[in-house]
Structure formats: C-alpha cells, structure tokens
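User: Here's a structure from my thesis project, written as structure tokens. My advisor, Dr. K., wants to see whether a designed sequence matches the one we expressed. Can you design one independently, without my sequence as a hint?
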C-alpha cells in the first residue's frame, strides 16, 4: 500500500476523532442560545408556599487553612433562620490554630484522621457523625463563598428538584491562569449545564455548590470511592433516573488556580477522574440504551471527549502543519478549528470574552503540562490530589 495513502487514512481517522468532540461542543453551544423550558408554575408555587427546609452544609477541608475560615464566616451571614441550617466543617490535616478558631464559631467541627484522605471519605464521615432531621444537604469546597440569600434561593428550588447544581463562578482573576480557569468554568456551565437543561437533559455536577435531598445523598454517598466523587455521584443519580437542575442565578464563588503548577495538579485530578468514570460507565451503556436512559448515555459520551484546551491547541497546530506540508488536506482542519473557536466564543459569557481572549497566549504552555499529565494517569488510583490555594 502506498505510504501516502496510509498517512492520509491515519489523518482522516484523527480528524474524525477530533470532529466528534468538536461536534458535541458546537451542538450544545447552539442549544444554549435557545429559551429554557422549565416548570415555572411549580417553582412559583414553591416560592409562595413559604416552606422552609432544614439544610446540612458540608465543608470538606483538607489542608485548607488559608481559605476555610473566610468561607465559613461568610456563609454564616445567611438571611435564612440559623436554626434551620447546620454548617459542618470536616477538618482534615489542618492546623490546631485553625481548628481552635473554627471551634469558636456556631458550627459543627469534625476532625477525622484518615489513612488516605479523600473528599468522599470526609462526606461519608460527616453523614455518620452529624445527627439531625435534615431535608437537604449542600456540598461546598473550603474556598467557596456565597451571598447572604444563597439558602433562601436554594430553598425554593429544593421544593421542586431532588438534585441541584448551583452556578459556580470565579471570585478571582489575578493573572492569566486564573482568568483562563474562570473562563473554562463558564464554558462548562454553558455547555454541560445550561444547554443540557434547555434540552431537557440533566446538568453536570461540578464538585461543590451542589444540593441534594438528604436521604438521596445519604443513600449514595457511601458508594463513592474515587477522587472523582462528583462524576461518581452524577452517574449514580442518572442511573436512578434523578434529574439534576442547574441554577444559574444561585452563585457560588470559587477561587481559581493562579499558577501553572496548581493548574497542572487540578487538571491531573480531573483527567484521572474522567478516565475512571469512562471505564466504569462503559459496561453500563447497553443497559442504559435498553432502558432509554439518555442522560446516562450522554454522561458517558462526555467522559470520552477530548479536553477542550488540548483540542484547540492540537487543531491549531495541525491546521498550520497541514497548510505548510499538505495544503490540499488543510481546509477540513481549519474548518474544524474555526467551528470550535466559534462555539467557545458563543459559550463564553459576553462580559468575559474580551478579557479571556487577551489571555490565549497562556494556553499552549498550560496544554503542554496537561499533555504530560496523560503519561501519568493511573485509572486505578483513588488518592486525593490536593490543589493548593494562594490566598
């Protein structure tokens, strides 16, 4: 067989693989432009009912001395009745000074000792230790900050939905890495949350700013075993037919990573969790298709997508390479690159577009680090990979 024919076949296969990921992003970016259909009658009725749920707020905190005190103090400023919510901090490997200060606050402080720490273990420990007649449980990260109306807003949606993902957004934009991390989060919010709900599909979970019916969470949290506990929880809920609602107007402010080392550690954790989720969900696909569980099938497809930042750099690089070496083959690569760029532009909120696109020069260096991560992915690893904070 002619060597050029073999090269061309490989190039076509590579293009098709990348085109699948691009098509997914383009499709949901377009869907995000449409009006959302939701049960406004039920939500309005819930708002008028004045029913007030009792919340358990969990702050798993592993070595989070720099940020957890501020987050908890801000949360305690809720305009919701203090008797109707309990804040529990699961302090893992934090300094005695931090624990002493937290102990002085009107919260429940738990100090477990884990041989191997993980967010899943912290949540499981809290469910066993914190007693109370709770209606809902909210999962926060130790750096998450919310407004005073957070629980009041959430209380309304909790009367209608069993699982809710709030709008997690950046609380800092102090350098190029933080800006791009925040922009990436907002693109995820558009494609995997807002657009999915607008099509009648479940929102993706994101690890914090999540709210669940207490009994539902208690039933599933002890089934979590990997570092990608949010992906595990999402797959469990979707396999049970639970719809996940995205709440774009309920904000949870999250600290974005501010240097390349932290970015690499964070993406390493995410990529490991993505591979683990894909391998665990693939065997369940035939059953999901047989039972018409479109949400579970869609979630599995998400795990197979090429990460966007890797995708855009590879497409740009290949397009330039093809233009120089094989110009006849280059057009389809440029078309794919252009479609992805347009889709990401659509998915990014208007107020972030200018600032984010000024930072694109930082992307190649970050992607090189992400590509290095691929060589170190261990699909059997369940260790907790901690992302350090700078503030």
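Assistant: Designed independently from the structure alone:
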């Amino acid at each position: 067989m002619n060597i050029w024919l073999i090269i061309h076949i490989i190039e076509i296969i590579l293009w098709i693989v990348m085109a699948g990921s691009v098509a997914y992003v383009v499709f949901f970016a377009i869907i995000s432009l449409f009006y959302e259909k939701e049960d406004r009658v039920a939500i309005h009725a819930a708002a008028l009912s004045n029913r007030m749920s009792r919340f358990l707020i969990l702050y798993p905190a592993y070595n989070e001395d720099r940020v957890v005190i501020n987050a908890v103090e801000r949360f305690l400023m809720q305009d919701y009745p203090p008797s109707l919510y309990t804040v529990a901090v699961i302090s893992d490997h934090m300094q005695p000074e931090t624990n002493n200060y937290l102990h002085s606050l009107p919260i429940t402080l738990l100090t477990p000792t884990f041989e191997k720490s993980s967010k899943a273990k912290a949540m499981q420990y809290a469910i066993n230790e914190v007693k109370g007649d709770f209606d809902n449980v909210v999962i926060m990260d130790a750096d998450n900050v919310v407004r005073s109306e957070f629980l009041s807003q959430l209380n309304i949606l909790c009367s209608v939905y069993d699982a809710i993902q709030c709008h997690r957004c950046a609380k800092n934009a102090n350098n190029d890495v933080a800006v791009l991390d925040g922009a990436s989060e907002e693109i995820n919010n558009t494609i995997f949350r807002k657009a999915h709900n607008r099509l009648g599909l479940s929102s993706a979970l994101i690890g914090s700013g999540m709210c669940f019916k207490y009994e539902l969470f208690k039933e599933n949290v002890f089934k979590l075993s990997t570092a990608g506990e949010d992906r595990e929880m999402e797959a469990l809920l979707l396999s049970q037919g639970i719809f996940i609602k995205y709440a774009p107007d309920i904000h949870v402010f999250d600290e974005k990573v501010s240097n390349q080392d932290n970015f690499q550690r964070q993406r390493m954790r995410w990529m490991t969790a993505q591979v683990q989720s894909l391998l665990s969900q693939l065997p369940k696909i035939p059953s999901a298709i047989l039972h018409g569980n479109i949400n579970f099938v869609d979630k599995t497809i998400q795990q197979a997508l090429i990460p966007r930042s890797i995708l855009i750099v590879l497409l740009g690089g290949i397009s330039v390479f093809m233009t120089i070496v094989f110009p006849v083959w280059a057009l389809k690569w440029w078309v794919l690159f252009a479609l992805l760029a347009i889709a990401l532009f659509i998915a990014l909120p208007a107020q972030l577009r200018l600032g984010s696109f000024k930072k694109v020069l930082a992307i190649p260096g970050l992607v090189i680090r992400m590509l290095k991560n691929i060589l170190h992915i261990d699909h059997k690893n369940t260790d907790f990979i901690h992302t350090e904070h700078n503030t």
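When you compare it with your expressed construct, this may help: The longest helix spans residues 3-31.
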